[in-house]
Amino acid sequence: MSNINLAEVGKNLVKNAETGESVELQSLWQDKPVVLFFLRRFGCQVCRWMALEISKLEPDMRANGVSLVGIGPEETGLKEFSEGGFFKGSLYVDEKKKSYKDLGFKRYSVLSVVPAALGKKVKDVISKANAAGIQGNFSGDLLQSGGMLIVAKDGEKILLHFIQDSPGDHVSLEDVSKALGISASAQAGQMSVCNDEVCTL
């Protein structure tokens, strides 16, 4: 399923967005399964919609002893992202982007990012984000892609390893639930409501 060396990746450091403490990635799957959602950027409109989408599963995850963790590649936009209520899990920053690299999350070139950002998948998500009142910005690293890693309790195995090909690619709620072996009440595409202050599901 994945040729990722979890023991090696687990040694990478990420910084807790709330406390500023750096921890090893593997501490996040110690004692419980974890869904690690790697964002392209905290200011990215598409990423904010995806964060709201995966957050629909957070109550079901919590009820089943699963942690939901968001990881960004830099602190740029973190404060606005946190205050906007886009994500219902814990937030961390991978300042060296070591986990991004080790997990195969590619970097676009200046030439390749434009066609990728103008693709149909991205336009579809932007349309959903606009309908939900979600805005974004172009601050920070525009070239990093993201993905998802779902790890079983104590790092026993990788349940899902997803690498974005297009900035609009994301794992469906159904596939996340299936990988975790849980049933979820959330439905994909239910509209989130955002105002100037915060987003609610």
What does this protein structure show overall?
There is one protein chain. By secondary structure, the chain is of the alpha+beta class. Helices cover 30% and strands 18% of the residues. It has helices spanning 6-9, 45-55, 58-63, 78-83, 98-102, 110-117, 120-131, 173-180; strands at residues 13-16, 22-24, 34-38, 67-72, 90-93, 147-151, 158-163, 193-194, 199-200. It has a 7-stranded mixed β-sheet with strand order 2-1-5-4-3-6-7. It has a two-stranded antiparallel ribbon with strand order 8-9. A hairpin with a 5-residue loop joins β1 (13-16) and β2. α2 packs across α7. It is globular and about 40 Å long. The N and C termini lie far apart (33 Å).
Q: Which key features would you list for this structure?
A:
two-stranded antiparallel ribbon; 9 strands; 201 residues; alpha+beta; 8 helices; seven-stranded mixed beta sheet
Give me the secondary-structure topology.
Elements: H1 6-9, E1 13-16, E2 22-24, E3 34-38, H2 45-55, H3 58-63, E4 67-72, H4 78-83, E5 90-93, H5 98-102, H6 110-117, H7 120-131, E6 147-151, E7 158-163, H8 173-180, E8 193-194, E9 199-200
Parallel strand pairs: 3-4, 4-5
Antiparallel strand pairs: 1-2, 1-5, 3-6, 6-7, 8-9
Helix pairs in contact: 2-7
Task: Give a short synopsis of this structure.
By secondary structure, this protein is an alpha+beta fold. The chain contains eight helices and nine strands. The strands form two sheets. A seven-stranded mixed β-sheet has the order 2-1-5-4-3-6-7. It has a two-stranded antiparallel sheet with strand order 8-9.
